[in-house]
Amino acid sequence: MTEKIRVRFAPSPTGHLHIGGARTALFNYLYARHNNGTFILRIEDTDRTRSTDEYIEAIIEGMKWLGLGWDEGPFRQTDRFDVYRSYVDRFIKEGKAYYCYCSAEELDERRKLAMAMGKPPKYDGRCRDLKGPVPGVTPAVRFRMPQSGQTIVDDLIRGPVTFDNAQLDDLIILRSDGTPTYNLTVVVDDVDMKITHVIRGDDHLNNTPKQIHVYKALGYEVPKFAHLPMILGSDKTRLSKRHGATSVMAYYEMGYLPDALVNYLVRLGWSYGDQEVFSREELVKYFSFENVGKAAAVFNPEKLLWLNGQYIINSPSEKLAELVMPFLIREKTAGEGQDIDMAWLSKAIGTLKERSKTLVELANSLRYYIAEEVEYNEKAKEKFLNEKSRGLLTELKDGLDSLPGFSHEGLEKAFKSVVEKHGVKLKDLAQPVRVAMTGGTESPGIFEVLEIVGKEKTIRRLEKAIKACM
Ligand code: GLU
User: Fold this and answer.
1) How does strand 140-143 pair with strand 97-100?
2) Last residue of a domain, one of 370, 389, 408
3) Which site among 37, 154, 420, 456 is 20 to 30 Å from 206 CA-CA?
4) Does the Cβ of 190 fall within 6 Å of ligand 1?
5) What's the pLDDT tens digit per position in 425-461?
6) Could you read off the pLDDT of 30-43 as tens digits, one per residue?
7) Are 358 and 390 part of one and the same domain?
8) 283 alpha carbon to ligand 1 midpoint, in Å?
């Protein structure tokens, strides 16, 4: 039997879930789902000065919104300090770690000196072989790294990466205040949680050889590693706030669909032929590290916007109606608690899907369907609500008024009769009507708009427009 795959997403809650973190979470999630494995969420909050409960909530909110459900957790490292300390004790007893009495100031001074002499700023090993404690000093604990030979990280994406052990620092695993450090806690947890694959950003690649020695010291088989290529902004520097929104929930706010963002994120490093749009099932089915590239990925907001537009076009209108509701209120298209018929809203959305790239755009376009009155764009009003169109609009209004229903066919007939009588083109009538109905000069087909707005409101809008003609 093959081993059961167990992976984890291990964010430090020192900020919101951002694009890079979400991509790491997604690749872990997909790898687990593809292999019927287990996906664990572990909150690495040992840095108590920078971690907050709000950020933990925000990360969880982001993962839930993206639909990246986990199977175990969330675990919190701050709940496990006793466990880490017991491993530190064990290392001390086994001679795999030692007490270090050097003060922060001393270390700093020696680091500066080493750098001034062109040497790597590595711990000089002064306390490695101390025979007894230094009275009056509370020590930190350092892990004893090998000082010669090489460590090879056999990465699933990059292949073997070799490190000289002489470069490896004797890590501090317990600070003198008794708190454990990242390179210890991450390994202890991976061991306790039986992690088989460590999938994370390649900013951690330099930590990996050190961690490999900690796994070994614990007598645990070293997990497989996949270090994901960096994500860059358009100027080819590391993606950051300078490049625009990087927090996942900011994309919710901007009206992106979670599936569109997931689809975009997966393409930051992974590909499957030329295919761009993937369902969740396809992603789970196709995902593997063979198709993850080594090269850094460039974050392209225009492409994300395009993809979101594709997802909007391809989503059922009923689903969009649900999703757009909070945006209708936020954009003041509808009032809080306003009664909107969902079937009617879906129909209205059906006419706008192809023109809206975000839910925010959709909410704004729905304004002229939902509002009691429309406001005219000044230029549109000037151009189309004039002396000439007054007669056309008046006749059309009378024609519509006498229609028994408000079907597409009836509307078409009413328009035709005005157009024919005056020997004008359909658009000469349609444009003033469009301004009357929507306030502007761009909208879906005019019959569709009228049908959805309905007879009563249409007549009222035409009456108002007729009055505005001068
Ligand atoms: N907590 C680390 C971070 O947020 C991740 C550690 C890991 O995945 O091994 O960068």
Assistant:
1) antiparallel
2) 370
3) 37
4) no
5) 999 999 999 999 999 999 999 999 999 999 999 999 9
6) 999 999 999 999 99
7) no
8) 24
